[in-house]
Design goal:
single chain, alpha+beta, two-stranded parallel sheet, 2 strands
């Protein structure tokens, strides 16, 4: 039996979170980003409480820098 593969178009927060969640369930996730170069808009990153809870549920909160 071949393991299922999920192709996610978009490497932003939702796409990366989905890929992590799928891989934790044994489903290989391949992320396809259309942009060849990552861009920064000159703004800070704000992590809200619902995002912190989601990171905790995914088991990646401890990997996030203080």
């Amino acid at each position: 039996m071949v393991a299922p593969v999920w192709y996610e178009v978009g490497g932003r927060i939702a796409g990366l979170s989905l890929a992590i969640s799928l891989s934790q369930r044994g489903i290989e996730a391949e992320i396809v980003e259309l942009k060849e170069v990552w861009t920064v808009y000159g703004v800070g990153i704000i992590i809200q409480s619902n995002e912190i809870r989601a990171m905790h549920q995914l088991g990646i909160l401890d990997k996030f820098p203080d």
